[in-house]
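1st attempt posting a full record on here, be nice pls
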Amino acid sequence: MILGEDKSKFPSGNALFINLNEEKILIDTNPGISRISRFLRAEFDLSVSDITDIILSHTHLDHGRGLAAIFEQSNAKIHAHPDTLKRCEKKARVGLYAGIQKDQIHHFEAFGSSLGFQDRSYPSNRKVLLHDNDTIIYDEVSLFAHETNAHCLHMLDYEIKDGNLKIILSCDYDFTPVPWYGVPQRGLAVQSFKSAARELVNKNANYIVSSHRINPIPLKNQKEELNRYLHLIDKRTKKAIDLLPSNKPIKLKDVGDFVYPVAEMGEQYSEDYKICAQTWDYYLLLSHLEESWRLGKVKCIESDGDIFLERCIESNQYLTNEVNKLLVNGWAEKTLNEKMPFPLPINSLWKK
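the predicted structure (as tokens):
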């Protein structure tokens, strides 16, 4: 494990390095070229130029920092989902993918510019496209790619096998206090994320390595960690319900800090990051409010122009079966074409 800065908390994160006889494999690049370079020199007497393969999970900032700089020094093969590779080549598409509205993309790019994204293309002969269930086989080690859409569309986590040893890089199924699942699944995001976390634990790996924890989770602790994690997510749904006044409707934007303590961030965070964090906080709140509507605890009474919420209001029920058709399908394609599939309905009106 190559640990990220600030105890690997977002916008930092961990990477994995696999040192084989022929191949030198780096999975995710977030710790950045300086930190990765120091690690390789200290642990293996290697340099960034020795890296032969870069494997990416997805293009969120806490996973792709340093990609361009590391590639320029190594000329390594880049293994990733096709959607991930496309987003590595244009920052604005990453911002839209992360839910930042188009008129606020400049905040995302200012926040993300220090994290290693560049507007550039990678040579086709260095790209290796990965899909769900693909396996990368080296002489001593194999890596099995598993696509899940519960954190973001087309994210790949990796099951790494070395003889009888099995390690899972779980990326953002990390059993930490700030799990992310707000775009674009909305009301199905909560259940999807919980199911994906259960699925990883059910693989019975010797260790789960997350992108945001200092230590791997051994097999004996995984079910206990999972139960604590699921309880945390359920508490968020209860919090979303409790934040709504009992006697009057309230706009989503007026509910207040939900997960991200934006009001308390102060001077140690840039204004650009705080604006992005506020947007992500709204998305998480929206996910839990829609989950609460699905459970019959709250409902939306004004949609703020959101087509999906409007249809739910007209039906007087949360249209669970419509979420994939109306929201998830097309999100990746549209944001690659620099269109936002739906504006964030911050003025939508909710009541218990």
